[in-house]
Design goal:
Tumour Suppressor Smad4; 2 domains; seven-stranded antiparallel β-sheet; 14 strands; FHA domain-containing protein
Length: 258
């Protein structure tokens, strides 16, 4: 992680003795859980946090534990991956099955998709090893760009169409991922046009190093769309302010048909 992306906070803890009391709080759908450093906390269809009775979700998917003075988030599932976003979307990690990562920011957001449903879980800690640098805070205010990426208007509106349920949610941690046909209909596009634009967007992000968007054997279309939505929303590539683009595009296409 680069120095210009994050820095040690002024009140950074110096005690890194394993077992030190550093409580972690987990938020899902308005419900809060306090995780003890002395126990493992499991998240999934079953566990300490029962997310949902979703057949596509692992019984035990994610696990939080405290080791060597750090909180760790591990993916203990076998198929699903999760996007972990911190620093207002400036720092992102893709947590694949079998991987684990330290929780070093005061706030982090976990986003993952199981079947047609996308979930969002918040992690909060009072003591953090890193804080957002002044440069990133400035970029988050809109004065500069953290990671510039150029999309055509049609590519951007495609991303918004897929992310619409997540962008419209109000304090809700669960949203439905639209199908390609539903998103295409929302825009007034043909499926061939939608798939072509989706390929272009995924190829562009893949070249930037965004994981999980490359096609190939075993890569389902649903997984690619889910990963695109997770990345776009977590990184604030698209926001609620972009939602009017959907009606504008739909109106434009309906007018052209007339």
């Amino acid at each position: 992680m680069s120095d210009n992306l994050m820095s040690a906070p002024d009140s950074a803890p110096t005690d890194t003795v394993p077992g030190a009391e550093r409580p972690l709080r987990v938020e899902f759908a308005g419900e809060w859980f306090t995780v003890s450093p002395r126990a493992r906390f499991s998240i999934g269809r079953e566990g300490d946090l029962e997310v949902d009775d979703n057949q596509y979700l692992h019984r035990h998917f994610l696990e939080l534990s405290f080791n060597d003075g750090l909180w760790w988030l591990a993916n203990v599932g076998s198929r699903l991956a999760a996007t972990v976003s911190s620093a207002g979307g400036a720092v992102q990690s893709w947590l694949s099955p079998g991987a684990r990562m330290p929780v070093v920011f005061a706030q982090s957001v976990i986003v993952f998709t199981a079947g047609p449903t996308t979930y969002e879980i918040g992690l909060h800690t009072e003591e953090a090893h890193y804080a957002v640098s002044s440069q990133v805070q400035t970029s988050m205010s809109g004065e500069t760009t953290v990671m510039p990426v150029s999309f055509t208007p049609l590519q951007r509106v495609l991303i918004v169409a897929l992310a619409e349920p997540m962008l419209r949610r109000e304090g809700v941690s669960v949203s439905e991922l639209p199908s390609s046909s539903a998103a295409a209909a929302r825009l007034g596009w043909t499926m061939s046009k939608f798939n072509r634009k989706l390929d272009n967007v995924c190829d562009k992000l893949d070249r930037m190093g965004v994981q999980g968007l490359r096609g190939g054997p075993g890569k389902l279309a649903t997984n690619r769309r889910a990963r695109l939505v997770e990345y776009a929303v977590s990184s604030q590539l698209v926001t609620r302010a972009d939602l009017p683009l959907l009606d504008d595009e739909a109106l434009r296409n309906s007018t052209e048909e007339d």
